[in-house]
Each structure stands twice: as structure tokens, then as C-alpha cells.
Design brief:
The chain is α+β, with helices and mostly antiparallel strands. It has six helices and five strands. InterPro entries: Longin-like_dom_sf, Longin_dom, R-SNARE_YKT6, V_SNARE_CC.
């Protein structure tokens, strides 16, 4: 998964102006970077101009996915992230929302007329920080933790069974379980004997 570019644009009357941009083209050879940068800039402006206000969309071109968030409103700000096809959409839109909100709060609208003078180093920070989409999306992070927990539990049960101990023998020998709990376990085992757990 890779983020290639992150940009903030002002779009008015179907014209766009790049106000801030950051790119990571380190995966391309030195000689390709200029051409790739031009391609990304051209398509970034094009998709920004063709995304209606208040809309989010993802557009695929070759091996690139352009995630666009047109916040609209008085400022007419649009954020665009260019990724490879593997980068998930939900974290991309989380980053775009964060980038556009931070830009809006830190950069006065009066400076939009001179984009070359707009200092916004946060885009470079976001570009580096969110290369791993789990950093942008709490749900993905929780899902990964759950998956890791399932693996650990699965390995633990397998390791107990690998030592030659059977779960049935442990239940029978357990003094901690009352007679009713043991009967419940045996009844449940009989009812589920037709099913195979994978």
C-alpha cells in the first residue's frame, strides 16, 4: 500500500489552483519522477474540478486511485490523495478530512491568491505518517488487534492439544467445575457432535 501524493486545492468556476501539495515518488526511478509528477498533478486538478461540492469519490486511472473530497462551502477547498490500488478508501477519506480541516484552520483565505507562499508542512507529515492506513483508521487498527488475538487463542488451544492433553480429560478432572457444569459440557458436546469446527 502506498500514498503517492496529497494535495489541497481551491476549485472555483471549474478551475483549480493547487494551494499545497506533497509527493512521495521514491518508488520511481530518478528519470521517471518528473513525468510521474506531471501526470499526478494533471489528474489531481482534473478530478478536483469534476467532483461536485460536498461529495467524496474515488477515481481509478491505470494503477492509481484518486480519492477526492470536495468540502465545498465558502472556501471551495478540495483534498485529493493519490494511492495505489491496495490502499483502502475509508482511511484515505479520513486523512483527506483531517488534511482539509487542518488546512482550513491554519491557512487564512486571504493567502489563497498566492499559493507559492503558503506554508503547510503538515501534508508531508500526513504523507509519511499515513502510509500505513491503520494509523488513519481506528476500525482497521481494532480489527488487526482482534485478528492477532484470534491467532494467539488458536495457537494456545493447539499447543494444549499438542501436549497430549484432551479437553475432555481436563473437564472431567477439574474440581473447579461443579457437576451441573460438567453435565452441561457433556450435553453440549453430544448435540454438537455432528458439526466440525474448523
Amino acid at each position: 500500500m502506498k500514498i503517492y501524493a496529497l494535495s489541497i486545492l481551491e476549485v472555483s468556476s471549474s478551475q483549480s489552483t493547487v494551494l499545497a501539495s506533497a509527493q512521495d515518488l521514491s518508488s520511481f526511478s530518478f528519470y521517471e519522477r518528473g513525468t510521474v509528477s506531471e501526470f499526478l498533478n494533471f489528474f489531481t486538478r482534473t478530478v478536483a474540478e469534476h467532483t461536485p461540492q460536498g461529495q467524496r469519490q474515488s477515481v481509478t486511472e491505470n494503477n492509481y486511485v484518486f480519492h477526492i473530497y470536495n468540502r465545498g462551502g465558502e472556501e471551495q477547498l478540495v483534498a485529493v490523495m493519490v494511492t495505489d490500488g491496495e490502499y483502502p478508501g475509508r482511511p484515505a477519506f479520513s486523512v483527506l478530512t483531517k488534511a482539509i480541516e487542518t488546512f482550513s484552520s491554519k491557512v487564512p483565505r486571504s493567502s489563497y491568491s498566492n499559493p507559492a507562499s503558503i506554508p503547510f508542512p503538515e501534508l508531508k507529515v500526513y504523507l509519511a505518517q499515513y502510509q500505513d492506513p491503520r494509523n488513519a483508521d481506528a476500525i482497521m487498527r481494532v480489527q488487526q488487534e482482534l485478528d492477532e488475538t484470534k491467532i494467539i487463542l488458536h495457537q494456545t488451544i493447539e499447543s494444549v492439544l499438542a501436549r497430549g492433553e484432551k479437553l475432555d480429560d481436563l473437564i472431567v478432572r477439574s474440581d473447579a467445575l461443579g457437576a451441573q457444569s460438567k453435565r452441561f459440557y457433556q450435553t453440549a458436546k453430544k448435540q454438537n457432535s455432528c458439526c466440525v469446527v474448523m
